[in-house]
Amino acid sequence: xxxxxxxxxxxxxxxxxxxxxxxxxxxxxxxxxxxxxxxxxxxxxxxxxxxxxxxxxxxxxxxxxxxxxxxxxxxxxxxxxxxxxxxxxxxxxxxxxxxxxxxxxxxxxxxxxxxxxxxxxxxxxxxxxxxxxxxxxxxxxxxxxxxxxxxxxxxxxxxxxxxxxxxxxxxxxxxxxxxxxxxxxxxxxxxxxxxxxxxxxxxxxxxxxxxxxxxxxxxxxxxxxxxxx
Length: 229
What we know:
It is a multi-pass membrane protein. Keywords: Copper, Electron transport, Magnesium, Membrane, Metal-binding, Mitochondrion, Mitochondrion inner membrane, Respiratory chain, Translocase, Transmembrane, Transmembrane helix, Transport. With 229 residues, this protein is an alpha+beta fold. The protein has two domains: 15-47 and 59-88, no CATH class; 95-228, Immunoglobulin-like, CATH 2.60.40. It has three helices and ten strands. It has helices at residues 15-47, 59-88, 216-228, and strands at residues 95-102, 105-110, 116-120, 142-145, 149-156, 161-165, 170-174, 180-185, 190-195, 208-214. A five-stranded mixed β-sheet has the order 3-2-1-5-8. A hairpin with a 2-residue loop joins strand 1 and strand 2.
């Protein structure tokens, strides 16, 4: 989760987010190089006293400064396209979880296990414990096994929402009457925090998302208890 003074991206908890972080660093490096080159050229123009009285055209330099940006864009576009296809890939998911956005809470359905269903509301400030995070913790977390392929099927019951967990690299729009899907794998046991990232009404800020990534053996115990309930 994001903490105070966090300047960079959150620590990745999935291979998808690792690839997104690599692409961010790759693109940022290109932008830094361009900024330094342009800054150096502009400073040279400001402080240069020399003039060329007979300079009327420069076809070679115009060819160079047309081709170089095109090559730079190719170096950004190719990794970006590769990443788009990786994000859309869904490979033999272990578990499918359906989440539905409401005003202003999330509901989850584990249809692989006798249709286990529950709602997830934000914990109000007056009911919080010392270990709860304000505006981020919920009463019922979405529990997933780590090192397992998870397929999220996302929809909405009223208006457009967006199911987002940054450290997983997942952002899926929840649209009424439409099913969108995303696939991810959590790489460690942890708590993953997110929020709705589509403005959906007055209490848009108060429908957080919490995913609890646990070992597969503990997940089997948890789902067994939920089925008994």
